[in-house]
Design brief:
Layout: E1 3-9, H1 14-32, E2 40-46, E3 67-74, H2 79-95, E4 104-111
Parallel strand pairs: 1-2, 3-4
Antiparallel strand pairs: 1-3
Helix pairs in contact: 1-2
Length: about 130
């Protein structure tokens, strides 16, 4: 159900990118009960001029190591679950691969269940 898009500056190792993907998925499983095997992620690297962000929006001092994570998921999570997800993702990614909390931007995009098709031209979530 979650579709994860991870955007970061080009030049990071495969191990670094994989650690981000693994940490994001682990946080989803632990905090919003996403099924472990429900893993769909896209990692996109950007040249320095193609990753644009405000370095101090809302008083948060960001660096060029910023990572933007956008998660499209089915609607229905409560605010407490979302806060738990944000906190857990920051904890996991601070450990591995070492992302500063200030450099992690997370955006959730909620959609209704009928907006998903996982293949075969079918809407698997519509009964």
């Amino acid at each position: 159900m979650p579709l994860v898009r991870i955007s970061l500056r080009e030049g990071k190792s495969e191990q670094y990118r994989r650690a981000i993907a693994d940490g994001v998925h682990q946080a989803l499983v632990e905090s919003i009960d996403a099924p472990r095997q429900d893993r769909f992620q896209v990692i996109t690297e950007h040249r320095p001029n193609d990753l644009i962000y405000d370095p101090s929006y809302l008083g948060i001092e960001r660096s060029d190591e910023i990572v933007m994570v956008q998660i499209t998921l089915s609607a229905g999570r409560k605010p407490a679950q979302k806060r738990k997800l944000y906190r857990r993702m920051v904890e996991l990614l601070a450990k591995d691969p070492g992302i500063r909390p200030q450099d992690l931007m997370i955006n959730l995009v909620e959609v209704v269940w009928e907006n998903w098709s996982f293949g075969n031209g079918e809407a698997q979530y519509i009964l």
